[in-house]
Specification:
- This protein is α/β, with parallel strands linked by helices.
- It folds into 2 domains: about 280 residues, Zn peptidases (Aminopeptidase), CATH 3.40.630.10; about 110 residues, Alpha-Beta Plaits, CATH 3.30.70.
- The strands form 4 sheets. An 8-stranded mixed beta sheet has the order 1-2-4-3-5-16-6-15, sandwiched between helices.
- Helix 1 crosses helix 10, helix 2 runs antiparallel to helix 4 and helix 4 packs across helix 10.
- The radius of gyration is 24 Å and the shape is elongated.
- The relative contact order is 0.20.
- The model has no long low-confidence stretch (mean pLDDT about 95).
- Zinc ion binds next to loops.
- Its cofactor is Mn(2+).
């Protein structure tokens, strides 16, 4: 059906004060992790005035809302994340964080405000809807697997008689031009894996390395060997990033330590590459250490899988965003982002897409503006109506015959 794009955007603009007000209230009181009682209470208050059936999580402070259309039909999922980061805000904004050491530095406050704005737009259009809109408001996106907990609690069975046929999420970025929507088919964001290596040596006097087993040069060799491994093993069109982000050994200048510790991240865009690089990090570290008659302990923790967009849904996002914000502001993302996202778990189960929405503040240059996760990041609230309208339009596109 043709989306009433102009109407939706006009309605979202008319409602922008409410969206901005909610965004700022959330911004003042950020919470981190899986348990966000204050944020959850705010979301529940906002939903209370709407024709939405609400359920809350049992293992986390998630919120699930079901908005039923006038006629039966399938269910379409819209997702926003609720959590902040352990960052101390230094923006000086009048609505800056009032919680020391916590900040909505990734824009999840904008996501939540836009999703609730979309819920209001959709509530006004219930008569046109055949099916249900499933509102997914998740804590713990920043590495806590909040989406996975919601799936385990039966998120996709929230409307037992009507399966979830599609899913959509938005992410704002402060260093992309404001109001520009970007999306791509296939990988949108990377898989992220955590690893740790402890090189087991034998301590001793720094003047007599032959009488000890010095793990420091072995750790250094492992760092370099990992980079060689990545460039020689990963095809350039199925890339991988291995970063050693933390390297710790020793305590003073005259002692050889008994161990050295390294930890880092692996980012990949395909399951094959992911499995190969994880195995290769372990193998390279094991055998470099073995060459020096030492052993390692290896730890691997799986992070989020690849966020893979369904190509047909990505096409619909481009077409619908083009109608909303103009074709010149609806673009194919040139490349995936090597960050990771737990909406990936939803996209493993349901065809859907995550799109990016630029929110570079007025007067700033996207190339040099403080980016997401920075203590100085500022997002353009002028992008909020387009985001709210896009959420609503994706649901209407799927549910209006
Ligand atoms: Zn984020």
């Amino acid at each position: 059906m043709p989306i009433p794009a102009a109407d939706l955007l006009a309605a979202a603009r008319a409602d922008v004060d409410r969206t901005v007000d909610l965004r700022r209230r959330l911004h003042r009181t950020p919470e981190i992790g899986l348990h966000l009682p204050r944020t959850q209470a705010t979301v529940l208050e906002e939903l209370a005035g709407l024709p939405v059936e609400v359920a809350t999580g049992t293992t986390t402070t998630s919120v699930v809302g079901v908005l039923r259309g006038a006629r039966p039909g399938p269910t379409y999922l819209l997702r926003a994340d609720l959590d902040a980061l352990p960052v101390h805000e230094d923006t000086g904004l009048p609505f800056a964080s009032e919680v020391p050491g916590a900040m909505h530095a990734c824009g999840h406050d904008l996501h939540t405000a836009m999703l609730l704005g979309a819920a209001r737009l959709l509530a006004e259009r219930r008569d046109e809807i055949a099916g249900q809109v499933l509102l997914m408001l998740q804590p713990g996106e920043e590495g806590f697997h909040g989406a996975r907990y919601m799936l385990e609690e039966g998120l996709l069975d929230a409307v037992p008689e009507a399966p979830v046929v599609g899913a959509f999420a938005l992410h704002v970025f402060a260093n992309q031009p404001s109001g520009v929507v970007s999306v791509r088919p296939g990988p949108m964001m990377a898989a992220a894996d955590h690893w740790e290596v402890t090189v087991r040596g034998r301590g001793g006097h720094a003047s007599m390395p032959h009488a000890a087993a010095d793990p420091v040069p072995v750790a250094a060799e492992i760092v370099l060997a990992l980079q060689s491994m990545v460039t020689r093993r990963a095809p350039v069109f199925d890339p991988a990033v291995v970063t050693v982000a933390n390297l710790v050994a020793g305590s003073t200048d005259n002692v050889i330590p008994d161990s050295a510790y390294l930890q880092g991240t692996i980012r990949t865009l395909s399951p094959e590459r992911r499995a190969d690089v994880v195995a290769s990090v372990r193998r390279v570290a094991t055998h470099v250490a073995a060459a020096h008659d030492m052993q390692i302990d290896f730890v691997h923790r799986q992070g989020y899988p690849v966020t893979a967009n369904d190509p047909a849904v990505a096409d619909r996002v481009l077409a619908i965003a083009g109608e909303l914000v103009g074709p010149e502001r609806s673009v194919v993302a040139a490349e995936p982002l090597m960050g990771a996202e737990d909406f990936s778990y939803v996209l493993q189960r349901v065809p859907g897409a995550m799109a990016f929405l630029g929110a570079c503040p007025p007067g700033a240059d996207p190339a040099s503006a403080a980016g997401n996760h920075s203590n100085l990041v500022v997002f353009d609230e002028g992008a909020l109506p387009a985001g709210a309208a896009l959420y609503a339009a994706m649901a209407l596109d799927a549910l209006v015959a």
